[in-house]
Amino acid sequence: MCLAVPGRVLSIDGNMGIIEVGNLKRNVFLHLIPEVSVDNYVLVHAGCAIQKLDEEEAEITLNILKELAESEICR
C-alpha cells in the first residue's frame, strides 16, 4: 500500500523544498509541481511533492492521520 502525506512548504530552492508535517521537516523534490509556492500545502509521496492541496483539505487529512496514530488500530 502507498501513502501520501500532506505538508506545508516552508522554503524552496530550485526543484527542492522543505516541507513541514506536524513537527517534522523533510526535504522533498518539487519538480512535478513547478507552480508551488511557500506556504502552499502539497501531497508528498516517496520524497516527491505530487499535487497541491488547499489548506482545509490538508488539515482534514492530517487530523485523520493523527487520529489513526493515536488509535488502538496502530498500536
From TrEMBL:
InterPro entries on file: Hydgase_assmbl_chp_CS, Hydrogenase_HupF/HypC
PROSITE patterns membership: HUPF_HYPC (PS01097)
Record family assignment: Belongs to the HupF/HypC family.
Pfam families: HupF_HypC
Protein name listed in UniProt: HypC/HybG/HupF family hydrogenase formation chaperone
Domain of life: Bacteria
Organism from which the protein derives: Desulfosporosinus nitroreducens
PANTHER family: HYDROGENASE MATURATION FACTOR HYBG
Gene3D superfamilies: 2.30.30.140
